[in-house]
Amino acid sequence: MPSPPDSVAPRPPVLVIAHRGASGDRPEHTLAAYRLAIEQGANVIEPDLVITRDGVLVARHENEISETTDVASRPEFAGRRTTKTIDGEERAGWFTEDFTLAELKTLRAVERLPALRPASAAYDGRFGVPTLNEVIALAQEMGEARGRPVGLYPETKHPAHARALGLPLEEPLVAALHAAGYTSAEDPVWIQSFEVGSLERLDGLTNLRLVQLAHPGGAPADRPALGYDEMMTPEGLGGVAQYADAVGVAKAFVLGDRLAPTPLVADAHAAGLAVHVWTVRAENAFLPAPLRSSSDPAALGDVAAEVRALVAAGVDGLFTDHPALVLAALGRGVTSGRW
User: Fold this and answer.
1) Is 61 a catalytic residue?
2) Where is the GP-PDE domain positioned along the sequence (predicted)?
């Protein structure tokens, strides 16, 4: 009688990554948004990282902060408004690298999408700008209280720009994570970037997992001749696997017309890379037309159907502004935190 086939290891639960915290319900990148995401059951919280003039890493989606703080209404900082060229694009506003941490701490966070998220906008002015160390402390404190790890998924934002200013992101990021006890690929940390050079530098600094971000039609700011479309081919993914452990890709790389899966997940897995996809958002404005509930862009659509399609495509993780809704779609309550 032939031997029975070896059992196939069960697929790990899909990682639920709180995109900027529970940013569908609270102003993004605030301790309140991260706290709510953990309470809702997210496995991981995601701080995008920029840097202050005095070299402190803080959580903001961009180094230009007029959309996410009240800086434009603060007369004492009116003279800080300026125009800069960042990653080849001209931008006007207020930039974190022109503020000390003490000055940033006087600012208050605001909702970036108030027309779509008025309930979150009701919290404008209540919360400040957190440092990376404050985010780490929150994750560890809440994880310990719940008996489960709360992972961290920091992103280096415009790292080549920051390094050119003499304010590199990678070294202080790794120092903070290592000091907090995160040192190995088994720890619940993923460091992500759109820039190849930042990830290659990180690969020489740490054993923590690294993630190459990508969106269709774009290219790394530090390698503009190397398009993301090319990087997400089987050959390109083999190159990414030389320095990264996963790819973090826009939904369009994973789902095509009528939510049909593309070859990307299978190709990435064949290269030894996990696939984390962004961004699952519940409002009609962010859903494909067949899943919208009405013509109101702020109304919630059938986000559960999108989650099911992404899971069926084989993704390993989902970035979401709405952890509670995604966990419900996955049939999970407050998660155990297994990676």
Assistant:
1) yes
2) 14-330
DSSP secondary-structure letter at 284?
G
CA neighbor of 40 nearest in space, from 322, 338, 329, 331: 322
Q: Taking the C-alpha atoms of 302, 306, 309 and 313 in order, what is their torsion angle to the nearest 10 degrees?
A: -170
Of 29, 61, 158, 276, which is the active-site residue?
Answer: 61
Cβ-based neighbour number of residue 73 at 10 Å: 12
Report, as an integer, the average pLDDT of 185-199. Answer: 98
Catalytic annotation present for 161: no
Instruction: Confirm whether pTM is higher than 0.85.
Output: yes
Cα separation values, 19 from 47, 49, 106, 160, 317, Å: 8, 13, 24, 23, 11
User: Apex CA 150: angle with CA 61 and CA 242, to 5°?
Assistant: 70
Helices (H) and strands (E) counted in the chain, each on its own, are: 12, 13
CA nearest to 196, candidates 164, 231, 154, 163? 231
- Of 95, 145, 110, give the one whose Cα is nearest residue 27: 110
Query: What domains appear along the chain, each with residue ranges and CATH number?
Result: 15-62+116-329 (3.20.20.190)
Q: Looking at 19, 161, 276, 322, which residue is catalytic? A: 19
Determine whether 162 is exposed, middle or buried from the number of CB atoms within 10 Å of its CB (0-12, 13-18, 19+).
Answer: buried
pLDDT in tens, 46-87: 999 999 999 999 999 999 999 999 999 999 999 999 999 999
Distance in angstroms (rounded) separating the CA atoms of residues 180 and 178: 5
Q: How far is CA 151 from the centre of its chain?
A: 12
How many C-beta neighbours within 10 Å does residue 35 have? 18
Angle at the Cα of 117 (from 112 to 123), degrees rounded to 5?
A: 75
Contacts of 130 (CB under 8 A, 6+ apart): 29, 30, 31, 34, 47, 58, 59, 138
